[in-house]
Amino acid sequence: MGGGGQLADTPEPGSSRDAGVFTWEEVQKHSSRKDQWLVINRKVYNITQWTKRHPGGSSVISLYAGEDATEAFTAFHPDLNFVRKFLKPLLIGELAAAEPSQDPNKNIAIIQDFERLRVQAEKDGLFKTKPLFFCLHLGHILLLEILAWTLVWLWGTGWTVTLLCAALLATSQAQAGWLQHDFGHLSVFKKSRWNHLVHKFVIGHLKGASASWWNHLHYRHHSKPNVLDKDPDVNMSGLFVLGAVQPVEASSSEYKYFQCFINALGPPLLIPVVFNLQILTTMISRRDWVDLAWYVSFYLRFFYCYIPFYGFLGSVALITFVRFLESHWFVWVTQMNHLPMEIDHERRQEWLTTQLQATCNIEQSFFNDWFSGHLNFQIEHHLFPRMPRHSYHLVAPQVRELCKKHGVPYQIKSLWRAMADVVSSLKTSGDLWLDAYLHK
């Protein structure tokens, strides 16, 4: 790690940097791929060499090059004292006394109030896990799997039974997706190590995916939600354009006519085609053999259970149909909180403002909580990614009050309104692109 603590270039004699004291202007110059600094609690760190060894992935920490990363650092790491040990060799100085503690365009009052809210939530025990909640959730996933197999075992492979089996398996897969999300965010166990281990089991053996692939994509999304060129969830301009800015910028490309097909292609193909190709490519290119072993174990178990009934090709058709159903579920739940919201370039705003502009909530109900894995509280989840989901509804009133105090919009929608807004926002994006393309 020591290599990361070296200065990226030689300071000029007599400059403030001789004493390890820097201005924001100096810090912001170090935001290229080969030269990266960031600020945490007024301390300046050179992370250029460390990015490759960062457990969360090089692309995640690099998103904050040239910026203040204090709020993100606090949000993502459960044991701050442990992580600070890794920061020590990277320390190159601190901000000058006359410099503000955060990026110049950030609102210090919002930052301070949000930090007080986070600390109070910690004191109130809202970051403490209820083990029974997650045990019951895992139990109902396994029960759905057992029921699906039992149906086929007892009543054969007729169309009705097969459709019921596929529906149960798709439900199990969707719910396992929400459970792996909990472990991936380190919100179940106190020890990060246990979260990582169980995460690999749930996402690998229960879902047939890769923990490493998920971490590197999902943490980038949480770091800069709906920020063009930084959030992988909105960087689909190879085929589709989203929001109000991207369609205009992409209007010079004729193949963006594919935008009109996103409603038909996106939901059914994301998991069975796009995600599967990404997962396999990621595991093989990074030689992540542990994740690959868990991935293979899922399919070995699935084919062992269903080949005796459907044969090999029939089992392939069954899992493909299950992925098709699950993909619809996943796409609509995850996009209804983000896609209709603001999608724009980096503005370097406070954590609270950044997350609220990119997220909205869905009304609470038992069904909505279960159906979305409590991601109907997307605002609270984005503000407190390590908080167990059973605490979201408890912190939500305090978040609303804080937003009201500072004039930050806090949106809550019905489930059906949110889904309708996804369609209308896609239509708006398509219309903007077409208008820009025709009038370029």
From TrEMBL:
The chain crosses the membrane at residues 260-279, 299-322. Its EC number is 1.14.19.44. Residues 19-96 form the Cytochrome b5 heme-binding domain. CDD domains: Delta6-FADS-like. It comes from the Eukaryota. Pfam families: Cyt-b5 (PF00173), FA_desaturase (PF00487). Keywords: Fatty acid biosynthesis, Fatty acid metabolism, Lipid biosynthesis, Lipid metabolism, Membrane, Oxidoreductase, Transmembrane, Transmembrane helix. InterPro entries: Cyt_B5-like_heme/steroid-bd, Cyt_B5-like_heme/steroid_sf, FA_desaturase_dom, Fatty_acid_desaturase. GO terms for biological process: unsaturated fatty acid biosynthetic process. It is a multi-pass membrane protein. One of its GO terms (molecular function) is acyl-CoA (8-3)-desaturase activity. GO terms for cellular component: membrane. PROSITE patterns: CYTOCHROME_B5_2 (PS50255). The keyword Transmembrane applies. It is found in: Membrane. SMART domains: Cyt-b5. It catalyses: (8Z,11Z,14Z,17Z)-eicosatetraenoyl-CoA + 2 Fe(II)-[cytochrome b5] + O2 + 2 H(+) = (5Z,8Z,11Z,14Z,17Z)-eicosapentaenoyl-CoA + 2 Fe(III)-[cytochrome b5] + 2 H2O. Its main location: membrane. Pathway: Lipid metabolism; polyunsaturated fatty acid biosynthesis. Belongs to the fatty acid desaturase type 1 family. PANTHER family: ACYL-COA 6-DESATURASE, FATTY ACID DESATURASE 2. This is acyl-CoA (8-3)-desaturase.
